[in-house]
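note to self: dont lose this again. the chain is below, predicted strucutre after it. 200 aa total, dont forget to put it in the shared folder this time
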Amino acid sequence: MSAVNITNVTVLDNPSPFPNPFRFEISYECLVPLKDDLEWKLIYVGSAEDETYDQLLESVLVGPVNVGNYRFVFEADPPDPVKIREEDIIGVTVLLLTCSYVGQEFIRVGYYINNDYDDEQLKEEPPQKVLIDRVQKNILADKPRVTKFPINFQPDNNENELHQPPSPGHPAEINENSELPSTSACNNVLFQETNSQAVN
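---
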């Protein structure tokens, strides 16, 4: 059983202009005291074919964490459009929210995000060069994909019992509603249709 469980994630200010920051209200519970920090990351998948275009938008440390319920707002800068191929800015991609403990990722929440123009005429007749100030990003907040990884939350107790996090494409434990893999594996199956249902 995980020592930390995400109980709710609310996407704030959505949809919003592409240049605006991302904002998430994250609620989680801690079942055992943790002496080290939790590391939260937000990653933007810039290309379905090439993970080198992935951008780490923000990384924050929260802790030490005692037993109890917590809530905070996680804010991250938007992706740098200069680092995204022009043809990949408009359309659907993926946003990944992850949490790790002492370097071990134990949960990943993935959202599809659709970038499109805020004007019907621009949608119908898109300019040759993307007008980034007219692009609106819309996170499909009601359809996250949650992947869980078993880790050792007390690594100092017995190093021989330390569970290494599974390889990115092979999570050892997946929520019944989960489908979205890691950034690297995501590049291979990014837009495949799934039969899973939304995770609240």
